[in-house]
Amino acid sequence: MKIYISGKITGIEEEAFQRFEFAENKLKLADFEVVNPIKLEHNHDKSWEAYMRVCIIALMSCDAIFMLSNFYKSKGAMIELALAKEIGMKVFWEEYYLA
Hints:
Layout: E1 2-6, H1 13-29, E2 33-35, H2 48-59, E3 64-67, H3 75-86, E4 90-93, H4 94-97
Parallel strand pairs: 1-2, 1-3, 3-4
């Protein structure tokens, strides 16, 4: 199963890199194919909107979404979650999955 990691990045980039990396490693150990948006190629103007376009395209290639516990503090993660739910993706929650 291919899974996309979603959570807050903007404003906490260093912490976000560590949190996304930790989740990625744990999910790989559980045999998921993981899409970590921090590691996506971003050849654009570095605006929030441009990041979201790349991330949404990557999300659409997945079967499930993994929500980090800080997702609710991120406008982008909330959009990703809403979109994933609307198209029937399975949702995994950090609080339950990595607890």
